[in-house]
């Protein structure tokens, strides 16, 4: 039943994302308002944030345990569906990437930058950023957003049920949105630990969902360096799995100068397709686990 629940949640979430509805970021921001104040000198304290995160995690774990023990599946499955829909989602990215690709196709790199600057890391938002660097930074941000809000949630939902999904998504939310900025690096480290295994699994999935021969050329370097950040691992693996230099703008511009204005749209579409195919691989893997009785 876990497969059906997740599949329904995924389909519902995709429709909501296409309509730009129900952002989980807004829900977490509202919840974290309880931590908007701290005593002077205590801004780096992680305790209050972890208490706010663990509260819904523990509640979800208790509810799931009690309902499963009582065999009240008619309440448990709809509740899991709601939780997954709330924890997943990247609303706004579809329209953002469409506007970005259109601006790129016109050669208006300034407009393209204006569309996506809020999604770029703070240190990379300068208007002097080259088109190549801007696109790689945006591609990294896109993959991290989809990973954190779909694949990470899916992995920990299978492992730990509703509590696992809330914990994984909540740590990412703390890293991005906790009101006391000095505490965020600690949450980033926690989120990185929680993301290590599912991110490496997604890196392996890229080889199945993309160009296996190209992926094999980079797989050893990625998988043999456990210290790579989630973003670096995903970018390197995706670069090997994608054809047509979709994540190598310098090489593309050298070999296909006449098609340079099409690069932004082509690359964005290639990344989306790779991530969609990777989710399909995960769903097939989950189905096999259900059939074999593993879960």
TrEMBL record:
InterPro entries cross-referenced by the UniProt entry: AmpE, Beta-lactamase_Reg
* GO CC entries: plasma membrane
Q: Which UniProt keywords apply?
A: Membrane, Transmembrane, Transmembrane helix
A single GO BP: response to antibiotic
What top-level branch of life does the organism fall under?
Bacteria
Segments passing through the bilayer? 45-63, 70-89, 150-172, 193-216
Report if keyword Transmembrane helix is assigned.
yes
Q: What is this protein called?
A: Signaling modulator of AmpD, AmpE
Q: Species name for this entry?
A: Marinobacter santoriniensis NKSG1
